[in-house]
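From the thread on structure requests for the teaching lab: each student submitted one protein with a one-line request. Submission from student K.M.:

"Model Putative polyphosphate/ATP-dependent NAD kinase from Mycetohabitans endofungorum, tokens only."
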Amino acid sequence: MSSTVPVVGIIANPASGRDIRRLTTHASVFPTAEKANMVVRLLAGLGALGVRRVLTLRDKTGVAALVLRAVQTQAALGGRERWPQVEFADLPMTQSVADTHAGVAYMVERGVSLIAVLGGDGTHRAVAMHCRDVPLLTLSTGTNNSFPDLREATVAGLAGALVAIGAVPPDTALSRNKRLVVRCVSGRKRGHEEIALVDLCVSRQRFVGARAVSDPSDIHALFLTFAAADAIGLSSIGAAWAPVARTAPHGLQMTFADAPPAGVPLVAPIAPGQIGTVWMTDCERLEVGQQVMLDAVYGTLAFDGEREIEIEKGETYVVSLDWEGPLTVDVERTLRFSAARQFLRERAAALFN
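Reply posted by the TA:
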């Protein structure tokens, strides 16, 4: 086990599960109180196995305030449960994704052993841009949730603690993920680079607008790191034709017609409560290291379901697939390894003796 005192970071995106797609689809709202409750359950799991310090962020929506109240209440009751000390980073709040970027950088600089992330695909992408090789404990609280796990936070906290204290070796507990790298090679934004953890969509929409890709006819091309058969979101389109596992040594690249009857019709759940039909004209494997030049001369680029870049005249973009995505905790594998060696029993005995 690690000889240093482990510190765990927690990023709980206050905006996840509350975007405009609640108006355009039948997605559930993920309330502030439940996010705070999930953080509290994480604290219980982390603290039970010896994590004594947690770093997290302040926000203006109430998540941090509710967590602080729960921590104070627990302390007033005599600390019957072993919770970590919770420290709130003293950082400016913009109520934008910049808070996540700055928060993750802050945690990495302070040597956290692990970052627990509560959010959807977009939140995890924002964290992955700055987490370097600090592993992520992923928890789903967003709209499209192909990348993070839908899992009880208490259980995730136990697994995260086992990783943070070094009880389970990294080669067992952690998995490396694929990512898509998109780079502008000509035009005004030349040199600009972005990543996607699940999907890159080349949209026919000329403007970013409300960001979400909600109209199937807007989809010109898709690039996917993986396509789980039970996925929600744009990756479900790839799964409708050729499912690709996270561990597969390749991804997918697909192109689509703007209207029938050209192409093969594919039906997929592109958002909660929204079944869309697209007309596929081509589908190929995307190999690791392969560079593909995007053929779009206008439109927008959407990363993990959200449009971010408007393609301007003279701009050319290249996309590639690699294995440089974030490390993530495999909760089931970690707990199975621990159970086989009775780590939980041994750790509990050590803490209470």
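TA comment: The chain has a mean pLDDT of 92. Residues 293 and 318 are 4 Å apart (CA to CA).
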